[in-house]
């Protein structure tokens, strides 16, 4: 979150993506948001594979359902 708040977007995305790949649900949400809104972030130079996007989406959905329970 510190990298994100200091506008080090690539560093933040790298950390969120790594944590999301390990199953960290809040990081999956952040990584997905950054991929989705990349065009509005200056210097955005990141991507995700289709498999990553699917896994992260599953994690986010699970997180949302936990919060609704």
Describe the largest sheet: none
Count of separate structural domains: 1
Q: Describe the global form.
A: globular
- State the share of residues found in helices, binned by percent: 55-70%
**What ranges have pLDDT less than 50 throughout 5 or more consecutive residues?**
none
Structure in a nutshell:
This protein is mainly alpha-helical.
General description of the model:
The structure is a single chain. The model has no long low-confidence stretch (mean pLDDT 87). This protein is globular. It contains 4 helices and no strands. The protein has helices spanning 2-5, 9-21, 25-36, 50-68. The longest helix is centred in the last third of the chain and has 19 residues, at 50-68. Helix 2 (9-21) crosses helix 3 and helix 3 (25-36) packs across helix 4. By secondary structure, it is mainly alpha-helical. The protein has one domain (2-68).
Topology:
Blueprint: H1 2-5, H2 9-21, H3 25-36, H4 50-68
Helix pairs in contact: 2-3, 3-4
Task: Give the tags.
69 residues, mainly alpha, 70% helix, 0% strand, globular
């Amino acid at each position: 979150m510190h990298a994100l708040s200091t506008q080090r977007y690539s560093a933040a995305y790298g950390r969120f993506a790594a944590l999301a790949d390990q199953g960290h649900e809040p990081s999956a949400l952040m990584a997905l948001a950054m991929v989705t809104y990349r065009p509005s972030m200056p210097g955005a130079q990141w991507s995700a594979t289709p498999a990553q996007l699917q896994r992260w989406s599953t994690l986010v959905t699970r997180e949302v359902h936990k919060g609704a329970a």
